[in-house]
Task: structure prediction
Amino acid sequence: MVEAENRDFSDKPFSGVPIFLKDLGQEQAGEPSTAGSRLFTSYHAKETDNYVKKLEELGFIILGRSSTPEFGFKNISDAQIHGSVNLPDDVTRNAGAGQVEAEDFSDKAADKAKEVNENVDKAAEKVADKADDVK
Result:
């Protein structure tokens, strides 16, 4: 937080907003950059990427790197270096790659499908009743 005390944030749209970078190609000079792999645990970036420079120019304070699966190849956060990122209310479940949002979406989609099926059944009953009236 020394950075926050020493930087001038005047007139910056994201003045002092703290963020973490994903440890995949978002390098910052002198900071570790592992891509989630044990192969690169001793590697430190030699220069700062343009993307990271732009974040800093906008006023963001970069606190560090977030956990990353090795080379980003998996859709769950089970990094070899730092371990799994699990849900705080259920540590048996992994929080990676939008799992919570996907499950919530899946539940909502199932509810909507049930509602649609019920409406189709009601419409079919009405059609059947009309057909009986015509006979």
